[in-house]
Structure formats: structure tokens, C-alpha cells
Amino acid sequence: MTAQPARTLRDLLDDNDIAGLQEWLAEHQPYEIADELARADAVRAVLLFRLLDKDRALTVFEELDPTDQHKVLSGLRDHAFRDVVERMNTDDRARLLGEAPAKFARRVLAGLSPNERALTAALLGYPEHAVGRYMTPETVAVRYYITAEEALAVVRAKGRRAETVYTLPVVDDRRGFVGTVSLGDLVLSPPDRQVLDIADTKTPKVQATDDVEEAARLMQDTNVLALPVTDSENRVLGLLTIDDAFEVIEAADTEDIARQSAATPWTGHYMSASVVQLARSRALWLLLLILAATLTVNVLQFFEDTLASVTALALFIPLLVGTGGNAGAQAATAAVRAIAVGEVRSRDVLKVAWRECRVGFVLGAMLATVALLVGTLIVDFTVAASVAVSLVVVCAWAATIGSVMPLLAKRVGIDPAVISAPLVTTLVDATGLIIYFLVAQFVFGL
Amino acid sequence: MTAQPARTLRDLLDDNDIAGLQEWLAEHQPYEIADELARADAVRAVLLFRLLDKDRALTVFEELDPTDQHKVLSGLRDHAFRDVVERMNTDDRARLLGEAPAKFARRVLAGLSPNERALTAALLGYPEHAVGRYMTPETVAVRYYITAEEALAVVRAKGRRAETVYTLPVVDDRRGFVGTVSLGDLVLSPPDRQVLDIADTKTPKVQATDDVEEAARLMQDTNVLALPVTDSENRVLGLLTIDDAFEVIEAADTEDIARQSAATPWTGHYMSASVVQLARSRALWLLLLILAATLTVNVLQFFEDTLASVTALALFIPLLVGTGGNAGAQAATAAVRAIAVGEVRSRDVLKVAWRECRVGFVLGAMLATVALLVGTLIVDFTVAASVAVSLVVVCAWAATIGSVMPLLAKRVGIDPAVISAPLVTTLVDATGLIIYFLVAQFVFGL
């Protein structure tokens, strides 16, 4: 199923075989169609999208990333365009507009009914990474003093328009937050029971201005299907649903992973990204890193005499700096991830530093013995000894700064993931060389 | 809230202040308590856990990773021990046993009621990463021919024991899979409506033996709250719920990230991992990589005369290999992630290689100009020129193999994430040096 359709699809698109395309669409799931739309260029994507019937078109559309949604929409004529954006979920729409150029955003808002426009504008009022952008305002709230039976009646009456009916905010007469009640409990409890008795009043909640990634992690920690969102006066504004939280976390992981390799994260499908886009996302850091790397040139220049007198030392430069870099990268990656999932906090910095220092020492000692053997075999003992000793120091040093830097970054409010493996590696290269040559000078009594 | 309690907690635990501890427990959410349990050593963790009342104890316990669950359980006396394991969700229990030593597993199974033991044993029958290990067998299935009202009655009758009642498998008389119906639709549709009319018969489903990560990604792609799980005869066995899928994906991401830094992933809390555990998780790869790095020594030995005649070439070795390594790491990381989230498939290998080759070329050209300037300033033009030319070739080469290797790994059935940034870097180091010296020999006419 993976290999066949896509290849055929490409052909069908190229020779514009409408009947064949319709057949292909009928045979595939919305998420499979969405994937192909994301991979295709704008023209092909629109051609394919146009062939979908209204309802499927919307389902497929909602599976797309904002970038790809933008790609498809831009190619649609006004009526089709308006139809899609009008029927999108408010929160998805806000997300789409948040990342789209202003001109496009205006076209979307213009296409909306007054009511939808108001809802969307409200969400767009929140900062980019705020919960408000991601929450659904279309919820079914119930008053705390009505009965389970009455609450179910409310669900039946208003449920159709809501994005979820599994978690209902429980509110007082001024929409003040009281708690949440799950549809399951409403169904399972005696009809005359008061909502307040079945409601969960200790449920975690967030404010619309809170950071959405933290909110999503909170949902994950507390295993709730939806997180109530309130304003500063504790009035209920909407719900953050688990599928949105799921996407937020995945996007955050993708970003962190990109940053960990010193690339600037970009939204959108890898296969639809152009060479220029890919290059741009990586250029800045490579540039900064090569400038930082000129440090290593200076260091080596400083020790040029030592290098000249014992050329053999040069042979081990890549091995030494490479190994140190790897040890540092491992520590940095572990620390960044531990911070991201909330296992490590800024105030753990000393504890972490001390542990990683010992880890680096243990690893360095192990690698040193290997280097001593190999080095003695390939070159001679004295050089091998300098390499071995340096490895111990460099690994301990690399692991320590590798783990400490992300924590310090977090403390000063920088995304810890910015402390990428390449960044740590580059820094370790320069410092590692200094250590190496100082050790060598000592060993050779220079 | 972040800074204060934990520090106090440590003190409370140290001077065994029961009253104080109980107060602390009362003030904190289950997931916060779980986090502290994960960070504490076994003795402290058990002391704290014992102070929780039955119901909270279970909630907290279910927030823990298997490793930490094991840590806590091992310290409990038989009756408390039995009470916890008996009341765990079947799928959580199976996961706990899957990762625990046999002796411990036997103790758990011995503590179970015959019914729970049977359910657990059934799940344990599935391979480690199979959906069967993670699904909940405790579901409420409804026959396709009954009415919505009757279905709701079934939910009321059996719902209490089920892990979720939001997605109900719709089955025929021999438990054959027909589709799923959501509690929401049951509530919202007219009571006399037949279940089959409201059921979603096109919903995606998986088999209990399928890979759980793929199943979880499928849930994410299709935005379903629960995925029906069947056996090879299409009979319904249970449901994979979204909170479990969420955990599976997060665990997979954590694993991939660890692998990307050439560390062996381990389960459990970063702060509770010992120096030895951390070292062990990183040692193997560092060892392999340093052995691979001896290649660079040989390469340099081979070019030792060139190096001796133009010592200045040595100055740029770390900069050159470092930059090449970074370019390769970026490409590898991007490819691994794209594969993980299903954006790239093995058959895209040529398309990817060609794109990344051009990306590397563009980046290399950019960096070369910088190197040419800096190099000419620091040393001289000829050396700088060799470095610049090498950079272009090395970056193109690094980006290409960095992106291709994960795809090839996948094709031959190896986890693409094993193609870690350090691995790519190390390979690029050796090959990059060869390119560098060949270019240099040409430039200097040696």
C-alpha cells in the first residue's frame, strides 16, 4: 500500500487523469491524501484537493500543517476558499492565520461570517505560543447546580457545535470556573445527581496567556482529555483538547531536535521544503560555528612550535577533539531532553554538573586506555600518553559544560535546545586543543 | 511553587517528619508527587509513598515510569504491594512486568486475582513493542443492531470497569469488528437510532501484533481518541487509548533523541539515573566511535609528508572536520526526524540525496568564502584556498551521506536513529581529511 499508490498518483496528476484521480481519492484515507498533498507542489496539490467532495475536503484539510494549508488555500477560487475557511475549527483557523502573510490573513477573515470572524479574531488576540491560540472556544459549559440529567439535555442541545463534549467546564452564573465534569460520569451517575457532586473541582487548569507547550506537558502529566482555559478573572474561555496538545508536543519535539543539530526549525513537510529553505534553516548556525571554529586555528597557531617539534601530535587532533565533542554532545542532548520533559529544573544545575563531570571522567578513563594501546601501536608511547591523559580531562570537561550550558540557558530565559550538539562540540574543540597541548608540553617537557 | 516545596520535602524526609510530609502530600497534585518519587532514592520514595491514602497512592503510582514503579513497589510489604498491583490498569501492569526482572514479575502475578492474572498474562503474551502490550482489554463493546438508547444502557451497566467509554467497539455476535461508535454520538443521536447508523465503520484499526509506535502515529494522523485493536480473525481485543499513544510517542522521541547523540536509550527519570547508568548508556558508542576515529590518525599518517612540508595545513584540520561534521549532523538529524514522523519513506532516498547534496553545496560555498577571508588574514592565500575548496566538497558530501545513511538503515531494517550525529561526524572526519589533503596537494602542486 505504501509503494504503489504514490507513484501512480504522480502519473495520474501529470497526465491530468481526472477519473483515475477520483478513483485514487476514493481508495485512500484522509490522512494519506493529506500526506500526498503536503508532498506535492502547489499546482498539483490544488488540482487534487479540488476533486474532493466538500466534507472530505475539510477532513483532509484539517490534517495538513498550516504551511501546507496555506499552499492549498492560495490556489482555490473565492467561493471554494470561503467555504473551507468558514468550516474550519476556530483554533485551527487561528493557527493558520498566525503563520500566514498578512495579505492572506485578510482574505481569510474577509471570507468569514461575522460570528466566526469574531471568534477567530479573539484567538488571534493571544501571543503566538499562548494557550489562547490553540484552545477551542466552542465548548459546552454547564452550571454546577443543575442535575446530571439536565446537563445531558444541555449537551444534546448544544453538543453539535462543540469540538468536544467529553469534558464539560462546570461554571457558576457568571461563567466563573468551578471544575470540569466528564460526559462519561454524567452518563454513569444517577440522573438526579447534582453536577457539582460528580464534577472534578481539583482538575488542573491554565490561563489563555500561559505557554501552550507547558500546558500540553501538564495534560500529559495529568492524563486529562481536555484542559479548561480561563482568563485572569477565572472565567472559562474554552478547552485545550488532547489532540491539539499532542500536536503541540510533537511540533515542540521536532523543533528541539532541529535545534539540537544547530538548524533553525521551520514548519511544513520535509519533502516539500525547497533546497533554499533547507539551506536557510541551517546557514546561520554553520556560519556562527565556523567563526567560533577559527578559535581552534588561533589555538593551534599559538602552539605551532610544539606542533612543529612533535608533528606526531597533529595526527591525534581529529580523534581527540572528535571524542571530546561526542562526549559533550551526549551530555548536552540528555540535559536538553530532561529539561524539555520537565525532569530537570534550573536549580538542579550543580547536582547535574557534578554527576556529568563524574560520568565524563569514567568515560574518559575508559577511552584513554584504548587510546593508549592504539596510540602506542601506531606512533609511540609518549604521544599516546599525552592523548590518553588529555582524553580523561577533555571528556570530564566536555560532559560538564555540555550538561550545564542548557540549564544556564534556561535560567537566563533562552531555549535550552539552542545549546546544540554542534555548538558544544565546537566549543570543546578549542578548549580541548588547549588541554591537549598543555598536557603534551608537560609530557615532552617542552 | 517550583523552588520551595522540593527543598523542604528533602528535609522533611531526612528528619522523618511524618506530619510535615502528610501536609506536603495534601498540598500537591499527584503528578507533582510522582515527580518527587521519581527523583528520590528507593528508601525515601517508599517512605513517602506509604503515607498516601489508597486511592491517591494508585493515581500517583500510575503517573510513574515502569522503572520508578518497580523502585517503589520493591519496597512495599506484601499486602500493600498486592493492593497496588491488583488495582493497576491491566495494560500499565503488563508494561511494568515487561520491563521488570522475572523474580519481581512472579511476585506481582502471585499477588493478583485469577481474573486479573489472566488478563495480564494475555497482554504479556504479545511481543515487547506490540500494540497488545499497550491496549486496554477492558472495553465496552456494543452490538451493531441495538439502538442508541440500549447502547447507553450497556455503557451504564458495564462502563465502570472500562478504562474508557468514549469510544465503543461495535461488534457482531461473535465479537467480530464492525466499527466504533463514540459516546458523544450515542448521546446526541435519537434514542431509537440503530448503532450501525451512527457507527464509524471506516475508522482505522490495528492488530494486536502490530508495532505500537506506528499505531500511535496513526492515531495522531487520524485524530481518534481510541484505536480498535483486533486479532488476526478480526475479532475485537481492546482499544489503544490516546493517553497511552501519547506516552508511546514521547518515549519514542526520547529514545530517538538519545540515539541521535549516540547514547543507548534507558527508561526512567534522568535525575534518578546513577553515574554508572549514564556512563553505561554512552560508553558503547563512544568506544566504537573512537575506534572509527583511529581512521583519521591513519589518514593523517598517510599524508604526514604533506603535513610536514606545509605545517600550516594542520591549523585548519579542526575547523574543516568540525564544519563538515556539523553539516552532516544537520542533514542526518533532519532525515531521521522526517522518517520518524513519516514524512520520508525509504523509496525517497534518491530524491533526498540529490536535494541534500545541493543544500550542502550551497552551504559549503557560503562557508568557503568566509574561510577564504579568515584564512588569508590569519595564514596565507594558498592554504586558505585549499581550505575553502575542501569545505565546498566536504559539506556537499557530508550532507549527502548524512541524509542517505538513515534511509538506507531503515531499508535494511535498522532503526534510522542509530545513524547518530556523532557517527556521521566521525565518518565525515576521516573522509573530509582525505579530501582536504588531496585538494592541498593539488593546490601546492605536491
From TrEMBL, chains A, B:
Gene Ontology CC terms: plasma membrane
Subunit structure: Homodimer.
Boundaries of every CBS domain copy: 135-198, 199-257
Family designation: Belongs to the SLC41A transporter family.
Pfam families per the UniProt record, alphabetical: CBS, MgtE, MgtE_N
Keywords recorded for this protein, A-Z: CBS domain, Cell membrane, Magnesium, Membrane, Metal-binding, Transmembrane, Transmembrane helix, Transport
Function description: Acts as a magnesium transporter.
Official protein name in the record: Magnesium transporter MgtE
Species this protein is from: Saccharomonospora viridis (strain ATCC 15386 / DSM 43017 / JCM 3036 / CCUG 5913 / NBRC 12207 / NCIMB 9602 / P101)
Residues spanning the membrane: 283-303, 315-339, 359-379, 385-409, 421-444
Membrane topology: Multi-pass membrane protein
Location(s) in or outside the cell: Cell membrane; Membrane
Molecular-function annotations in GO: magnesium ion transmembrane transporter activity; metal ion binding
Domain of life of the source: Bacteria
